[in-house]
Amino acid sequence: MATSHSTAAPERADHAGTAPLSADRVVAEQRRIERELAVLSAGESAVINGTRVTAISLRVADLLDRYQAASSRCRRLSAVGDFDRLLAVQDEMRECRCQLAAAGCLDLIGVA
To answer: Is residue 3 over pLDDT 70?
Structure first.
């Protein structure tokens, strides 16, 4: 089973001149997107509603979550000068980055 990851910022729902979608329309749109994603294998990308999405395995999704959480903690600890804990968090980021590199997914964290 693959999941998808998007690096684009979500669009605002309050565009001028557009009406809110009905619940039925939202469900129909969700199902359409799920059908488009279902045919992607891990590592394949598609553009859906103008946003590039990449199918990833649950393992890679977990690594991305761990990396992003550690990155946030790293910024917070750096701001308060807690350098001992900062080193441990940087180790976690390095571990995630190495595993993402092995999976060929560094592009998902902005590393070319």
So the answer is: no
Give the C-alpha separation, 48 to 30, whole Å: 11
CA distances from 100 to 11, 28, 42, 93, 109 (A): 27, 34, 13, 10, 9
Spatial distance between the Cα atoms of 7 and 41, rounded to a whole number of angstroms: 18
- Nearest CA to 53 out of 11, 8, 102 is that of 8
Query: What is the spatial distance between Cα 20 and Cα 2, in angstroms, rounded to a whole number?
Result: 30
Phi, psi for residue 71 in degrees, rounded to 5: -65, -40
Q: Is the pLDDT of residue 70 over 70?
A: yes
Please choose, from the candidates 25, 17, 16, 105, the residue with its C-alpha nearest in 3D space to the C-alpha of residue 57.
105
pLDDT band at 64 (very low <50, low <70, confident <90, very high): very high
102 contacts 59 by C-beta, under 8 angstroms? no
Determine the pLDDT at residue 33.
87
